[in-house]
Description:
The chain has helices at residues 17-29, 41-50, 68-76, 91-94, 112-119; strands at residues 9-13, 33-38, 55-58, 61-62, 65-66, 81-85, 102-104. By secondary structure, the protein is α/β, with parallel strands linked by helices. The radius of gyration is 13 Å and the shape is globular. The protein starts with 8 loop residues before the first strand and ends in a 5-residue tail after the last helix.
Amino acid sequence: xxxxxxxxxxxxxxxDALLAMDIEDFLSDLGVDVIGxxxxxxxxxxxxxxxxLDGAVIDLNLKGELSFxxxxxxxxxxxxxxxxxxxxxxxxxxxxxxxLTIISKPCDFDNLPNVLATEFAHTG
Length: 124
């Protein structure tokens, strides 16, 4: 089955090593060129600077540090992304994420290809 994400460079930012490996394996099976996975904001920002990204899948809470600097950088560079997080529904945080595509944890791998294909459809 063909998805719009095949051959795309997609950054994975996830601090849970097992989940990061699951996401990496899943995306690789879809034909994605996975960048990372990385587990902290500094590494993610470095990858954004050093790589021609088509998109990103990012965790919101990285060992207590919220990934808003990465979100802001991705927005500034017009790089599409989805947030995969169990923290996204917290009311104070939810308002900061208005308009963003959020996948709740545990990650729904059955729906993820459709979400990615829709979110990243306009990337070349």
